Amino acid sequence: MNYKLYVIIFITKIIENSLGTLRVIVVSNGKKWVGAILNGIISIIWVIGTSMVLIDVTKDPIKILFFCLGSTFGSYLGSVMEEKMALGNNLIMSIVEFNLGEVISKELRKEKYAVTSFIGNGKDNLKSILMVMTPRKKTHDCVSLISSIDSSAMIISEYATTLKGGFKT
Questions:
Q1: Is 43 exposed, middle or buried (0-12, 13-18, 19+ CB in 10 A)?
Q2: Phi and psi for 106 in degrees, rounded to 5?
Q3: Whole-angstrom Cα distance, residue 8 to residue 70?
Q4: pLDDT of 116-159, one tens digit each?
Q5: Collapsing DSSP states into helix, strand and coil, what is residue 155?
Q6: Which residues of 21-40 are buried (b: 16+ CB within 10 A; e: fewer)?
Q7: Residue 134: burial class (beta carbons within 10 Å; 0-12, 13-18, 19+)
Q8: pTM for the whole structure
Q9: CA distances (Å), 165 to each of 27, 153, 162, 168, in order?
């Protein structure tokens, strides 16, 4: 058994899949050239890793197992990296008690969040609807601030891309 080869195959697939996840993130954030360069690097790593597996694969099928394990772990690691990097912005929409809308808006603006508020009709009464654009890294802080003032707030978050204009933090 060639343990060094198994480790190299495993690490190669981890690097390849992690970089693949990173590539998707940077491309979705508009960095096409960085994504293209990463794709070139990924291709080189893929050719090297795959060729190590395919050489005499029938005599040493355990290489396939390490290839698959590296791919699985690399995919997981890439997801963790993406979560930690948290590139881009989220749009948080929060439906809060009408009398708390202005209070929450002022607090959010004090913390430099971009907030747009308007009045909505709830089932039983008026509501304040707050739309907050925030960097993904600050989403949790924004939600915590809203919840600390109105614990019954309905809060929805989704990935957002600014197409034109608006207040930039």
A1: exposed
A2: -65, -45
A3: 10
A4: 999 999 888 999 999 999 988 899 999 999 999 999 999 999 98
A5: strand
A6: bbbebbbeeeeeeebeebee
A7: buried
A8: 0.68
A9: 22, 28, 7, 8
